[in-house]
Task: structure prediction
Amino acid sequence: MPANLPPQYFEAEQRFREAQTPEDKIEALEEMLAIMPKHKGTDKLKAMLRERISKLKDQAAAKKGTAKHKSAYAIEREGALQAVVAGAPNTGKSSLVARLTNANPEVAPFPHSTHKPTPGMAPFENIQFQLIDTPPLTPEYADPGLLDLMRRTDMVLVLVDLLADPVDQFEQTMDILHRNRIFSPSCPLPENLAKKPVIKKMLILLNKADSPRDLENLDIFKELTGTDIPAMAVSTRTGLMLMDLLAFIYELSGLIRVYTKRPGKEADLTSPFVLPRGSTLEELAGRIHKDFPERLKFARIWGKTVREGQRVQRDYVLQEGDIVELGLQG
Result:
């Protein structure tokens, strides 16, 4: 069957021939792949292009490994939490980060438009989360730098496209993560792992739920996949459920916000200390200053689970929203 390729394909092919760097060649090949019509006559050509892309990415990664410059995936953490947005091509990763943060990743209607990670800060009440847009994960290729970033991050947001076989997309993405030892706490671990698994908090986002009726597909998705990973439906086009998403991320994070005050003064409720749930008064003191745990005698607490100004000891377990007045000696 003939391929019947459009003129734009041959223009991208010419750019590939003229490209001088692996990155430019990859960009041209991915554009050719995106433009190519979908039918049996293009199957062999698609496979050939994907193989070329994979080899070029391996070459580029090897070249970067010998160079001394900083990797694009060495992203410094900012804010209360760092979350990597991951998924198959054209699921809306860039749109999500652009919607929620101050970042400006390239948003395009064709796949493989993201070539490097792009971080941005998403404000939630009086704290911020760092969300990172990333290149797509595909069965043909997953960038080793991206996989390392996901092993280091606090949370992985797995995007799937509600309109493009979300069950298959989800299963392919999770298979890539599992083959690279990245698991959700709710996923069973295989017995034959050669290396220690990396357990990461995960949230599945069913994107392109552009109307309230589309939210019903979330239950169908959960039933078909049988997954216990937390999931929600969102729309990066209409903004449906995006503010709820930030609240859900905070709920899953296992973090709490605690405030401090000086005797006789009001607490500053705009700048909380963000700590893991279960943290003690002594751990808060160490976060404020390295010498404070030794000088700590007691504290007075204003919160939902104590009397106002109740005196507590260093092993007191802090709660969300507590206001703390430290009693220090010396």
